[in-house]
Amino acid sequence: MNSTTVSSALANPLASFNNLHKNGDRECLQGPSHYDALSESHLQGIAQYEDLYLLTQNRSGHDSGKLYVFRVSPPQQCIFTTHLDVSQSAAALGGNGQAFNHPGGVQLAGKYLFVPVQTEDYNNTRIQVYNVEGLTSDNPSIALVNNSLIADCDDRKIESIGVAFDEANGNYVIVGLQGSDLYFYRTAGSDLSVPVTGGYAFTCKVPEHNDAGPQTINLLYGGDGQLYLVNFAVREKAVVLFTDYAYLYQVTWSQGLGDPASARHFITHGSSTPGVNQPHFRWGSGIHVDEMGINLLVTQRVMQEKCYIDRFEQKTDGSDADGEPEGTEAVE
Fold first, then answer.
1. Distance of CA 234 to CAs 75, 170, 215, 237, 308, Å?
2. Over the range 121-146, which residues count as b (16 or more CB within 10 Å of their CB) and which as e?
3. In sequence order, what E strands does 120-212 have?
4. Banded model confidence at residue 326, pLDDT cuts 50, 70, 90
5. C-beta separation of 260 from 242 below 8 A
6. What pLDDT digit, counting tens, does each position of 255-290 carry?
């Protein structure tokens, strides 16, 4: 298993995406001694920083969301938990006075974790930025860099965020997902304590395929400077019974997305209760780029004493995780 965090740029994202195992490799995280098993709440996002998994969870009825941090290496224990607080003031509440307690789909860019935190009714969002390099110390901690990076998102329902550092321009490209709408932004430079001023650079929609709606989005750059978007999507067969798809798009700035460069069906494995708490792209999902290429990460629905995740890694021998040969599967 690779755990090295490298640049979000990848020489050939399309080839790497097509080389992913179709079947997920199940991992069992050893949950924290205290966790929020709330029926209305579930895991929302997952990212990897060096040898650490970072998972976000909403907390219905509470005044904040939560972050769990686990070791990637066995025994994969929880080393840190914290509340993701939007500062407690009247200005920090949504338009109807509701607290921000719903962190959504996240992405890391270097040492920075970007988190969209919504109110209970989803009508308002704060884009938070945390420096997570302190998590590798003997006394793990995170540092809030910006409590509201993009004021234009304050009155939007941003449920997932994608981020990539644009090395050519020395700034960050950020995209927020609201339903099937995408809103793209650029920071003025590399200093993330400086808020993004003005509105979005452009907006477009995520195409829906086979009734598979977007759940989480992430961004990455190719070696040629091309920006790519990964869309995690699910098709619901029955109540909480999903099939999982991922789509890779090229992003044309100011125009949006065309047809997917690649569309893949992935198979998750997890709990003994399929559908109810099975890892699916409906819950926390995200990409991790290491020296081998793209990895996909996906969580089960709720935090428990044993929390299952799936990891989709690069094929190295032309076979899938179950030993069967696999070709790239197009999704109609």
1. 30, 34, 7, 9, 18
2. ebebbbbbbbbbeebeeeeeebeebb
3. 125-131, 143-146, 160-166, 171-178, 181-186, 202-205
4. very low
5. no
6. 999 999 999 999 988 755 555 678 999 899 999 999
Q: Which amino acid is located at 249 in the chain?
A: Y
pTM for the predicted model, two decimal places? 0.91
Phi, psi at residue 142, to the nearest 5°? -125, 155
Helix, strand, or coil (residue 15): helix
Using DSSP, state whether 17 is helix, strand or coil.
helix
Give the whole-angstrom CA distance, residue 104 versus residue 42: 10
Give the Cα separation of 58 and 46 in Å (integer).
13
Picking from 45, 36, 62, the residue whose alpha carbon sits closest to that of residue 120 is: 62
Can you read off the two tokens belonging to residue 101? 């307690």
Find the mean pLDDT for residues 72-81: 93
- Phi then psi for residue 56, to 5 deg, are -105, 150
Q: d(Cα 282, Cα 234) in Å, to the nearest integer? A: 6
Instruction: Look at residue 58 in the predicted model and tell me its pLDDT.
Output: 86
